[in-house]
Amino acid sequence: MKLHGMLTGQRRLWVVMVLAAVLCGTGGAAVPKTAQLLPSKTVFLVEVENFQTLWDQFKRTSFYGLYMDPAMKPFLDDFHTKRKDKASKADNEIVQMIFGAGTLPSGRVAGAVVLPESGTGEPAFVVLAEWGDKLATAREAIEKMVSQAVDDGARKSRQEYRGVEVTTITTVDAPQVGSGSGAAAGQETDAEASGPESVSYCFVGDCLIAGDQMPVIEFVIAHIQGAGGSTLAQSDDYRSAMKAVGPDHDADLYLNIREMVRMLTAESQGGQAMMIVENLGLDNVVSLAGALGVARQADRTSALRLLLKVDGAKRGICRMLDIKSSPLQVPKFFPADATSVFFLSLDVKQAFDELIATLNRFSPQYAAIAQMPFIPIDPQNGLFGDIKSAIIDNLGTDLAMAGKVSKSGSALDPAATLSEMVVAMTVGNRPMLEKSLSAVHAMMLSKGNPEMRRELLGHTIYRIDLLSLMGGGEMEQTMPMTMGAEPPAPQIPTLAFTITDSHVIVGSEASVERAIRAMAGADAGTLDSAAWYRRARAAIPAMVGLAGLSDAAAAGEHMWQQLREMDALAKGDHSELQLGMSSAGPQILFAGSEGLFDFSLLPEFDKVRKYFGLTAAYGISRQDGFFFEVKVLEPAR
After folding, report:
1. What residues contact 175, with CB distance under 8 A and at least 6 apart?
2. Cα 408 from chain centroid?
3. Which of 90, 152, 195, 631 has the greatest number of beta carbons closer than 10 A?
């Protein structure tokens, strides 16, 4: 394939990022910080300060132990063999050369997207990478790549800027569409649509600079040499955001959301796109910043800190999701053997009011529809209530969800997953709420069937047959797959809810019944007495707006089993397996990697369980936006 087939569309960023990320080394101490080298119009920056340091820190984590465990060798050896084979057969010659370079990342690596100063035109992609003592090896690999591209018809040119030689590789004109082109008659290829493209690169000391637009490369060269001018480092937002997500900066991320939105909405006719953004209250969302620390503490694999920055008062979606910090309260009916739990503290009344205000900005009719009295409070006397007065105003502010991994049946069966999950929302006014929800259930959810409700220990269980409500057989369709013959359809459990003095409890009928019985049992164990929960809880602040805690070993075992079962499905053996919603995670995680992994080679999970610890995540609302932190805790020693 010619070089023009490699560098079209979004591939440009991927090519230069991989080029820098894989072929880099140590050194480059004289080069200023990356943000001091990039224009102020930089809207995206991802940076690893030192790959070798990051790798050395990774070696101190349990995940490195998993990677090096002999039990994983058959699986990893098979993957590496297939990866090299796939790269050697790839149409993209750059991929072939990169994977054959034999070098490991060990210095600063950064990739950025820069908007044009004029406000019009295509964004520029640029990468920086320090090579250090691998400079000769990396140069040789790049020269081989360039030579191959020229042999395939690309044009090579050189120019000098401030004493630095810059090499540019430009695609040839796109080929004409014909019978042998692989495209339908009259159909444009990517190259025809975009025309010739180029990648330029140079070295300043041991630092590689590569990109697709010369003005940005020249800007970087000039600032390495001490030139003045406005840079990303001078941005108040960038500085304050990166400080907020510190102090550990093994890898950093910065996205200027405000500028990205302006760019994406600029071409909208009549300003419609920007009007939608403003109506949703997203016009004052400024940026997203993130920083990753690896093995910075003895008991911690990693910690990722994120700040979604908002300028001024939160409106629209941000106000609807404006979480309120409070102490975590574990409902006493949550099972002691739960392996994951989620908490959210939200002013639902404020959220609903803001929803109405947002709908009103789009159209007063939308807001009026959302406030129509349709809930049959007392239909015999013609009394109907709107959703706010009948339900929202009678709810509390705290939502919690607990689950555990089912070890019975298929890991891909959504029925097993749902049957082990329970959701609880605090109650403000139980009598009014139960009256409203009971009416909704009778008129809308049970279709008047008296068998869809029953009494248990002084509580009413309201049953919901999702399969019937959603059209019966329609829910029996399996999730689309490309891995082989269609497996049997999943079974959907009957959902249910009940209202207590403290909570609305929702889940499978079995989980709701267990919760009711747990409230009546004085000797029942509680989740907050579980060792894993206490350790994960101690890793986050006392007051948070949301939190997610989980036993990674339990989650890992479930994922492990899903992968093995998906492998069996791919090979056509789906006896007693059911594929449904719970398989979406693995499919998304490994999307685009078909043929690279043979999950049947994974060892039994018990052989690697010792490498999985806990995860603890939380979020808080601040005056300047939303702050989040995700911690991966090492297994208990």
Report:
1. 2, 181, 189, 191
2. 29
3. 631
- How far are the Cα atoms of 208, 217, 252, 256 from residue 112, in angstroms, in the given order? 14, 11, 12, 11
Instruction: Look at residue 415 in the predicted model and tell me its pLDDT.
Output: 56
What does the angle CA 57 – CA 30 – CA 23 come to, to the nearest 5 degrees? 55
For residue 88, name the pLDDT band (cuts at 50, 70, 90). Answer: low
DSSP state of 464: E
Cβ atoms of 444 and 518 within 8 Å: the answer is: no
Which amino acid, one-letter code, is at 566? Answer: M
Contact 326, 292 (CB under 8 A): no
Q: What's the rounded Cα separation, in Å, for the pair 317 and 417?
A: 30
Which residues, at least 6 apart from 229, have a Cβ–Cβ distance to it below 8 Å? 219, 222, 223
Q: What are the DSSP calls for 327-354, one per residue? A: E----TTS-TT--EEEEEE--HHHHHHH
Three-class SS state of 283? coil
pLDDT tens-digit profile of 380-424? 666 778 899 999 999 999 999 999 876 655 555 555 555 578 999
122-150 as b/e: b if 16+ CB within 10 A: ebbbbbbbbbbebbeebeebbeebbeebe
CA distance 632 to 416: 26
Distance CA 411, CA 582 (A): 8
Helix intervals (H) in 23-72 = 51-58, 62-68
| Spatial separation of the C-alpha atoms in residues 46 and 263, rounded to whole Å | 20
pTM greater than 0.85: no
Q: Select from 201, 160, 250 the least CA-distant residue to 12.
A: 201
- Which pLDDT band holds residue 64 (cuts at 50, 70, 90)? very high
pLDDT of residue 468 exceeding 80, the answer is no
3-class DSSP state for residue 591?
coil
Q: Letter for the amino acid at 392?
A: I
In angstroms, rounded to a whole number, what is the distance separating the alpha carbons of residues 250 and 255?
Answer: 17
| Tokens representing residue 300 in the block | 């911690």
